Structure formats: structure tokens, C-alpha cells
Amino acid sequence: MPERLSSDHHLYRERAIVGCRYALCSMVTAFVLIGTHLPHHMAEGVFIASSSIDYCERNNKVDPVPCEKKMVVTLSVDAGQDAGVEEVVLVREASDKTRDDDKRVVEFEPIYLTTKKTRVRYHYPLFYERNFNAKPYEEQIPTSLFDPCVDKPGSSKATCGIAHDNYQKPIPFSEGFCCNCGACQLAGICPSDSRGLGSCNIFQTTGSASCLRLGELWYSGYNIGQGTAWYRLHVTLRDEVDNNSAASTRGSATMSLGPDQPADFSEKFGAWARLVGDFVPPEMPLDLTGKMLFTPATPRRHERVIAGSREWMFLDKHLVSLQGRECNKIGVSYEGFVTQGSRCVSRPGTCLADQLEDYRQRDVVAEAHGRRGKYMARLFGDMYTGGTRNTSSPYIAFWLRGSLSTMVTITINADSLRYVQSVSPGTILRIKLMNKTVFSYTRSGVVSVTVLNTGRAESQYFLAVRNCSVGVHPIAAQTINIPSGHNATCLFDLYVQEDVMTPNVKCHVELRDARGNVTDTSLFYLRLMPVNRTSGSQGREAPDGQGASVRVQRERQCSRCSWYNLFCYLSAHCWWQPAVYAAAIMGVLILVQLLMGGGSVPKQR
Questions:
Q1: Among 5, 6, 286, 507, which has the minimal tally of Cβ within 10 Å of its Cβ?
Q2: Where is the Generative cell specific-1/HAP2 domain (predicted)?
């Protein structure tokens, strides 16, 4: 039984214990400072520090404070690290005072500590904005002297008709606009393919109505928030006993940590683990806050809606008009179309360029020619969709390609420890270029490297692409964990920053084991071409992504009416059919009159 302490002794012990607590806090603070100032090349699973302390807990300021001997271990755990890569052996010791020799220290069964971390993915919150039509187009309806064009706002006789919203209220500017034959057209100074000149024929058409029509497919548009790192880090403790030279596990416990659970406790081992923080990754995650996500929404049975995330697109916000008043932007509305400048001297389809369908087609053409697209979401990285392909409930997350190490502190009953790291040789199996020809200052350069673990233990490797013979944007090495006899593939982006033409650009691939020793090297060659520089619509080039237009005959609308529905013809301004009715009636009346007049005999006086 411990002796009773005096009040002075109690006071001294309490001050010492408080000092221990302050020392522990200072030590953990020192670990945090070490973690935040480590260079990027140390962003792998490594042992950082350990210390043996007296850990004390105080519930109040009156009772004596109990203290225990604890070992505090601080580790850095890399993304995707498996349990067999590294191991910490915690040893508990005691002094055998019954012996007089120097071998008084007795070791109990050791505790084995392993860490495992899932791949890191960044989740991006989505905020619904509104739906956008994939491809608005212009419909032109020719008019004549006897059937003039009408574009009066709110008129029920508008040539284009009037669109209504979900509450059956007329949509402003949906009546379109008219381009009649005028001085510009008659003088021959208007462009040959302008809206007005195409309608200048006194004997046939003297004008045309330009109507905005909306395509069948609609996309839902979402704003994207800041990404958040998400992972699970598992700390497993187990004690093993030696039974006939074969180790067997007597007990184990796993503590699970993550951004939503920064600490956990194991009652069996009297241990607890706490996340200190994450290191800054060498390659920063995607920043999508300046973009919008577009997902096919309706009709539900459309092939793109069914395709799910493969048809999602990321587009910069400056390419979108939320109010719809700007031409040649996604979301252009009736108002933007009708209020466009110089509308009658412009070509049909003007104001309707650069729509969602146009951006998608550009990526389709690029992929067909072996290039990398710019807008499809699947081209931005390794996308994680949460196991669902449901377009109506989109979910955005991307796997982090590089490393993101996490610092964790484990406190446990122990007197000393041994750090065990698995080291295994490996070899580079193959190197594959996605495109044999790479253009400078583009995203066309992607190389795939496959590595094989040729040893007997699961181990960690560092793979790097470096020392290219031309200027390539610095490429961060990737950390991979490979089980024995298995292989893994890494993708590297090659952003060439020199505008030259070189037939054979040489790059080195280097594989290092867990200790940093070079275990294999290889070379690959690529053909570099200078980027095709253009001046766009400011130069002598026609702009791409032109708006679509179709020209329909007035009779096309008239043909929708049944032959007996006179009211339909009148409401559609189809005057020829009522004229036929009137002519037929007049003919019948004249015939009747002639028949009645021919059969009568005049009276004689």
C-alpha cells in the first residue's frame, strides 16, 4: 500500500503533474510544428517521433491526481497505405528484483501497432441553379405582302406564336422578331446570307420571322463549392503469444479515425489515437469553384440521361448567362435573342453559338482525333460517383492522384518500441503514352507507368517521372503500396512548357523502394509539336460553335390544321385556305343562281 502523503507533498505532486500535462501539450505542439514544416518529399508513411511520459488526468483540484506510464507515438500515414507496409512493436517491461544479476528487465508480450489508410477523395458540394437547354436554335418563317410578319409583343397573332410558362402565362419576347425587305436589302449592301436579304423577294416573300426554339434535351446546372478531403485511417493493435514457435493473436482492437472522427479509444489496450492534421499535398486538388456542373436531366429516357456521369460537363462560369440576356452564352433566352444588335443584317443562328451541345461536340471531336477534351467531367481526373449513376441526384468526388499524409498520435501503455518497415524490390513493367505526339502548352500529354512488386512482402514505393530533355512542368512523385506479386499503375500529366518541335523527347522513369533506394529505372520517348496558335474570331478565321437555324415554309404551320377547321386556319394566319372556302361557296352560289335562272320562263305581256 502506498504511504500517506503530507499536504506539502500533495501540493508538490500536483504541481509536478501539471508540469507533466504542460510538457505533454508542448510535446504534441512540437509534433504539429514538425508536421507543418516538413518538405513535400517526406509526404509518405513514416515514423516521426516517440516519447515515454507520465500521463495524468485531473477531474478536479481537490482529489489526488492518478498518473500512468505512457508511450506517445507520432506517425505519418500516407493515402492508400496498407496495414503490411509498416509496423510499430510496443514493448512493456518490468524489473525482476528477485534476481541479483544484471538481467533484471523482463519483457511482456509485445503489442503490434499497424496503420492503414484509404485513398483520399475530395468531395464537392453542389448547389442547384436552374435547368439549361442543350441547343437552342432559330426557326425562320417566310412571310409575304398578303401574309405580313407580326412580332408585336403580346400579340396573339404573332407569326412565331407565343410561348407560355408552367402557369400558362405568356413569356416576354417569345414572339421573336421580323426582318422585312428594306433599303439595305434592295441596295444590295447587306451580307448575302443575312436574315433580311434571304427574305427579299417581292413576288414570293417580303419578310421573315425569326423565332427562338428550344431543343429536346435539357441539362441541370449546379454551382460547385470548395472540396473537402475524405478518408478513413485505421489504427490496429494486437498482442501475439508464442505457442510452439508459431505466433498467434490473442486479442486485437481497431481504432477508426477520419475528418468526421478525429479521435478514438481502445478500452482493451488502454490506448487512444488522435488526428493531428494533414500535410500539404505536393499536387493540389481540383479547384472547381469557378466552374458549373451540367448533368443531362430531361427527357428521362434520353440516352445521355441514362448514360449518367459519363455525360456530365464542367464549364467556366463566365460561359454561362443566368439571366439569359447575353448572346452566345449557355442559357441565352428569348430576351437575349430578340434584343441582339444588328439582328436583321446578321446571319441566321447568330446569338445562339457556344451552347452545351457545342462544347460537348468539341470534346467528342478531340477524343476522336486522339486528343484530350476540355469539358467532360470524366476527363478531369479519377471521378468517384458514390456507386450511383443517377443523374437526378449528382454526386461529385475525385480521387486524389498524389499523396496526402496524415499525422496521427497514439498514446498507449509501453516502455519502448521498435519500428518495422517492409522493404521489397520492384520493377517497371511497362510505360504507355496515351498520345505519341504531345503538343506544347496543352493537356495532351499523359503517360501510364505500371510497377510490379517482385519481393515477398507488401511494400511502399516511390515512382517519379523526371529529367525530361525539354522543359516539362515539374511532376510530383507518386507513392504507391503494392502487395507481393501484384502490380499497380500510375498516371502522370506531362505539361510541356517549350514551344518547339522535337522528334524524340526523352524522359526518365525512376522507381524507389521504401528506404529510397533506386530499384529500377527506364526511359520513354515522345514526339513534341508546337501548339497550333490561332487568333479565333479576331483573326482571319471563322468562329466555331455557330448557332443553328432552320427555315420553314408558312404552309408547314397551315398543314397542321384539319381541312374542315376554319378557325385553325384563321388563327394561324393561313389566308389561302379561307379563300378557297370563300371561292368554293361563291362558286356554288353562282351555279345555283344560274340553274335557277335558266329554268324560269319570263312572262309575256
A1: 6
A2: 65-570
59 vs 5, 13, 62, 80, 324, CA distance in Å?
19, 15, 9, 39, 64
Q: Are 73 and 50 in contact (CB under 8 A)?
A: yes
pLDDT higher than 90, residue 36: no
CA–CA distance, 512 with 186 (Å, rounded to integer): 78
pLDDT of residue 81: 72
Nearest residue to 413 via CA among 49, 71, 17, 54: 71
Query: Is the link from the previous residue into 299 a cis peptide, with omega within 30 of 0?
Result: yes
301 to each of 305, 390, 432, how far by Cα in Å?
7, 12, 38
> 360: Cβ–Cβ under 8 A, 6 or more apart, which residues?
311, 313, 375, 376
Give yes or no for a contact between 395 and 122, defined as CB atoms under 8 angstroms apart: no
CA pair distance 143, 573, nearest whole angstrom: 10
Distance in angstroms (rounded) separating the CA atoms of residues 411 and 51? 10
Q: How far apart are CA 554 and CA 272, in angstroms?
A: 80
The three grid cell numbers given for residue 197, joined into one nine-digit string: 436579304
| pLDDT, tens digit, 9 for 90 and up, residues 314-359 | 999 999 999 999 999 999 999 999 999 888 888 889 999 999 999 9
Contact criterion met (CB below 8 Å) for 193 and 347:
yes
Between vectors from CA 224 to CA 222 and to CA 228, what angle results, nearest 5°? 145
Which tens digit of pLDDT belongs to each residue from 527-546? 888 877 765 544 545 555 56
Helices assigned H by DSSP within 284-330: 303-307
pLDDT tens for residues 118-167? 888 898 988 999 999 999 999 999 888 778 889 998 888 899 999 988 88
Identify whether the C-beta of residue 244 lies closer than 8 Å to the C-beta of residue 182. Answer: no
Q: Looking at residue 547, what DSSP letter applies? A: P
Angstrom distance (rounded) from CA 269 to CA 256: 15
3-state helix, strand, coil in the chain (%, to 5): 20, 35, 45
What topology is assigned to 423-536 in CATH? Immunoglobulin-like (2.60.40)
How is the chain split into domains, by residue range? 7-119+233-281+402-421, 121-136+216-230+286-398, 137-213, 423-536, 558-598
CB 426 within 8 Å of CB 512: no
| Helix (H), strand (E) at residue 459 | strand 459-466
Q: What is the pLDDT of residue 540?
A: 47
Report the alpha-carbon distance of residue 20 to residue 26 in Å, rounded. 10
N- to C-terminal Cα distance for the chain? Answer: 161
